[in-house]
Design goal:
The protein has 237 residues and is of the alpha/beta class. It folds into two domains: 81 residues, Tetrapyrrole methylase, N-terminal domain (Cobalt-precorrin-4 Transmethylase, domain 1, 3-Layer(aba) Sandwich), CATH 3.40.1010; 125 residues, Methyltransferase, Cobalt-precorrin-4 Transmethylase, Domain 2, CATH 3.30.950. The protein contains eight helices and eleven strands.
């Protein structure tokens, strides 16, 4: 958790969030607060409740996993405020966090040193065909690929299709990093290849990083070359 996010939780009178994410917060940060939690697919209700509390004059924190502005709640809260004509009445601060892509990249080595694309495989909001088109476009364009929400209990076939799609452009031996619970208790880190990727252990707490043509394994770490050595050689050493 970023220090500024911790401070916001300490100062808040009301904390609103998805139950799984609230459970990750240190208990002492919740003492004396009104805690409002909901399950999956209750994002609009959750955000509206937070807005209602803020309109009552209460300092309210909406909790997201990682970074609130990356597949988080910041956008929805702002959309609801705008739709209700409250943008000028409710002060909103989006506090940057530590997104899974940054945490996972640090654990894997340095796979995001060059251009990369981030794609969620969740089709709750976006049709699967659109997601598939985006994956193929990113694979064809040689972006390093960061894959969020790769697999759930009800959605267990898309990742295998995506793997086969990427293999058309990257081959069997492209490095793939799998990080689960990045920088949290129960963390696991694995580096494999597209052909040896075992999708059975992947779930919604996992994030995948697929290398591109500039990605190599160096000392057991995924490294995507930025191109410094090709341009400057060892003259700067």
């Amino acid at each position: 958790m970023a220090p500024k996010a911790r401070t916001a939780l300490m100062q808040a009178e009301v904390i609103v969030g998805y139950k799984t994410y609230i459970d990750l917060i240190e208990p002492e940060l919740l003492v004396g607060k009104e805690i409002i939690l909901t399950g999956m697919m209750k994002e609009v209700i959750r955000s509206q409740t937070a807005i209602d509390r803020a309109c009552q004059g209460k300092d309210t924190a909406v909790v997201s996993s990682g970074d609130a502005g990356i597949y988080g709640m910041a956008g929805l809260v702002l959309e609801l405020l705008a739709g209700q004509g409250l943008m000028g009445d409710v002060k909103v601060e989006v506090i940057p966090g530590i997104p899974a892509l940054s945490a996972a990249a640090a654990l894997l080595g340095a796979p995001l040193m060059h251009d990369f694309a981030v794609i969620s495989l969740s089709d709750l909001m976006i049709p699967w065909e659109v997601i598939r088109q985006r994956v193929e476009a990113a694979a064809r364009a040689d972006f390093v690929l960061v894959i969020y929400n790769p697999k759930s209990k009800k959605r267990d076939w898309q990742l295998e299709e995506v793997r086969e799609l990427i293999r058309k452009y990257r081959g069997d031996h492209m490095p793939v990093g799998i990080v689960r619970n990045a920088m949290r208790q129960g963390q696991s880190v694995q580096i494999t290849t597209l052909s040896h990727l075992d999708v059975t252990g992947v779930d919604m707490l996992s994030i995948l990083v697929v290398g591109n043509s500039r990605t190599r394994l160096i000392g057991g770490k995924m490294v995507t070359s930025r191109g410094y050595l090709e341009r400057y050689g060892t003259k700067i050493l």
